[in-house]
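User: DNA-directed RNA polymerase subunit omega, Saccharibacillus endophyticus:
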Amino acid sequence: MLYPSIDKIMTKVDSKYSLVVAASRRARQLREGAESELQRPRAHKQVGVALEEIYGDYIKVEARDENEVVEEQKGKRNL
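Assistant: Predicted structure for DNA-directed RNA polymerase subunit omega:
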């Protein structure tokens, strides 16, 4: 059985899409050397640890306005 279950973790986010995006971004940070605040994570892989952090409220998933995301993407293209 997977921990945390999808039913339990969906109480922390507004959609499955935002969960996937948040978990993948955090997993990338962990892969690149960021430290986790979890004392004993059950998962051995970064995605699992990221999901545990989201479920344990170590990481907050905030909804952003679509216009903010578009402006952020435009700014990155100009670099």
